[in-house]
Specification:
By secondary structure, this protein is of the alpha/beta class. It contains 21 helices and 20 strands. The site of one calcium ion (CA) has 4 residues, from loops.
Length: 566
């Protein structure tokens, strides 16, 4: 165990003791005996003592309490300390000449006594030290703050300790660092868990060694991720090098780091490490760079995200979200026929202008706001289907996007049914697009999708090709159509055109009797090629961009004019 990292120490490297003592001479004696080893603060009255206890609660390691004070009884202070949540764990040593008071003090929670007149310095130092150590150990057990494998702090305790570090080193610039081992899961699979454990232990030891002497602290968060909080430094390459240990047998461990240097202490500790993590993600797939830094661009992005989050409720209230519609055409026959539309949300932000869903959907998925937004879009889409039924005299089914986050809601089928009913529609009028990756995320999700399909909602698997489901597996999943990811089209029609993969996928889907939809189709060449390959439906700029409802309606009316061909 890295003992030196357990202690709470003040800026000068010492633990802090509050001495509550009204007599000048006693304060002088104690000061003389303890000053070299501890950081002392004094209270001459009970009132001052309570004030300091409140103000210094995070920094105190021990209280030395005189029972006779001018304004209060020492006993009452003891009682107060032990009854408050924040200070109940703070050890108190009572200083008294009155042996009869000892039992009462013990009952009130005092840990030890120092008699008056004072014993020899060694005795006092020993008692003080023993008490502090005892309490720090107890504190540690209470928090079960260590990772058993590496002996490092776990995250919860680490964050708490980092906050304490700030209190003690208020003038020191600090860095937040996230460090990961490259391809750790592969290493585990290939060489076994035991070897993986050895690697973690070695890296942990290296990191501890590195911050040693600087009061820095280290923790292991999750499998192969380490957090470091330490006084600002610039030798990050050295850290990288030292953590890249060579194991027995010659295996070279490789690590990568994200650094948020000279942290802003006005944001909470967790967020500082989020920033370091963002920096680490920047170099995740880089071959040449192993250290990433949190920079201004990331900060700007974070501000923008914050702005979007803060604006969400107003946006819903003020109807800044608008639904656009993009047509999907049935291309199986000689002429392309309008089949349905996809509802795609847009944000008309009062200051940022038009924002595309790619910028805010992932953000809202992270914090669950997406559920509210999708609910809104579904309702809008249902109302629109209803309106077109009435005004155009025909039914245009609309597909809506269902985020993976929505699927964790067990009431989703009822919710969607309610929306459809309220608009006087059938479930068959509202198609649901669910991304392939949602299917593979969690087996429970597949059941929710099944139940949606059982109720009559047609299901389209979106972005097919980006997840990991095999075509084999697809036969067992609840799906009515396969929507090929746009990337298939992009790749197939790149410079040296190669459409073999595209053709194979469409062919396989056909053999499984699953209709295919191609999206992102921009040119006539693409459309015709897909048609020849047997693709059933096509969506893309070739036919139309996503349009506001009124424009979409005009588009449809125009299609219906006699003599017009697509
Ligand atoms: P997606 O579901 O894959 O939607 C297709 C995206 O491709 C849309 O982007 C669409 O505007 C764009 N697109 C259509 N045709 C073409 C084309 O010919 N060329 C190119 N380059 N792009 C084309 P958009 O509207 O920016 O939406 C992005 C993504 O945001 C969507 O991808 C979908 O995953 C998500 N999204 C949009 N609206 C919603 C919503 O209401 N709820 C949820 N959960 N997600 C939504
Ligand atoms: Ca979609
Ligand atoms: Ca898609």
């Amino acid at each position: 165990m890295p003992e030196s990292h357990l202690k709470f120490h003040s800026a000068n490297g010492k633990r802090r003791i509050l001495v509550i003592e009204d007599e000048f001479i006693n304060r002088e004696i104690l000061g003389y005996m303890l000053r070299d080893s501890y950081d002392l603060i004094f209270a001459e009255t009970g009132a001052k003592a309570l004030e300091l206890l409140e103000e210094q609660q995070d920094t105190l390691s021990l209280v030395l309490l005189d029972l006779n004070l001018p304004d209060m009884k020492g006993m009452d202070i003891l009682r107060r300390v032990k009854s408050e949540d924040v200070n109940a764990q703070l050890p108190v040593i009572v200083m008294t000449a009155d042996q009869d008071a000892e039992v009462e003090c013990l009952n009130l929670g005092a840990i030890d006594f120092i008699p008056k007149p004072y014993p020899k310095q060694e005795v006092i130092l020993a008692r003080v030290l023993r008490t502090i150590e005892l309490f720090e150990d107890r504190d540690i057990i209470r928090w079960t703050e260590r990772d058993h494998l590496t002996g490092l702090y776990n995250q919860q305790y680490f964050f708490r300790y980092a906050a304490q570090f700030d209190t003690f080193h208020s003038a020191v610039q600090t860095d937040a660092i996230v460090l990961d081992i490259n391809h750790f899961h592969l290493l585990n699979e290939r060489y076994g868990r035991h070897f993986g454990d050895e690697v973690l232990k070695c890296v942990a030891a290296q990191l501890l060694n590195m911050v040693h002497g600087s009061d820095g602290i280290v923790c292991r968060r999750g499998a192969d991720s380490f957090l470091i909080y330490c006084p600002h430094r610039t030798d990050y390459e050295d850290i990288l090098e030292q953590a890249s240990v060579e194991m027995a047998g010659g295996y070279q461990v490789r690590v990568r780091m994200g650094v948020y240097p000279q942290v802003d202490r006005s944001i909470d500790v967790e967020r500082r490490f989020d920033r370091a993590k963002q920096a680490a993600d920047q170099v995740k797939n880089s071959f040449s760079k192993e250290v990433g830094f949190y920079d201004n661009a990331m900060y700007e992005k974070e501000l923008r995200m914050e702005q979007l989050l803060e604006g969400f409720q107003t946006a819903v209230r003020e109807k800044q979200f608008t639904v656009y519609y993009q047509p999907k055409f049935d291309v199986r026959g000689a002429e392309s026929v309008l089949n349905s539309a996809e509802a795609l949300v847009r944000w008309k932000h009062p200051t940022l202008g038009m924002i595309s869903p790619g910028d805010f959907i992932p953000l809202f998925e992270d914090n669950g706001l997406i559920r509210e937004l999708d609910f809104y879009v579904w309702k809008e889409a249902a109302a629109q289907i209803r309106e077109w039924k009435d005004t155009l005299g025909r039914s245009i089914p609309v597909s809506v996007n269902v985020s993976r986050v929505d699927l964790f809601d067990l009431e989703l089928p009822e919710t969607l049914e309610g929306i459809v009913k309220a608009a006087g529609l059938e479930p068959g009028d509202l198609l649901l697009e669910i991304t392939e990756s949602a299917y593979t995320e969690n087996p429970e999700i597949v059941n929710v999708i099944k139940s949606l399909r059982d109720r009559g909602f047609p299901i389209e698997m979106d972005d097919f090709g980006t997840g990991y489901s095999s075509l084999n597996m697809i036969t067992t999943l609840p799906i009515d159509a396969l929507k090929l990811d746009m990337q298939f089209i992009r790749t197939a029609f790149r410079g040296n055109k190669d459409t073999r993969l595209l053709e194979a996928v469409i062919g396989l889907a056909k053999s499984l009797e699953l209709p295919t939809i191609a999206e992102g189709v921009e040119t006539e060449e693409q459309m015709l090629t897909l048609k020849t390959m047997g693709c059933d439906f096509v969506q893309g700029y070739y036919f139309s961009r996503p349009l506001p409802a009124a424009e979409f309606e005009a588009y449809v009316r125009n299609l219906e004019q006699p003599g017009r061909k697509l």
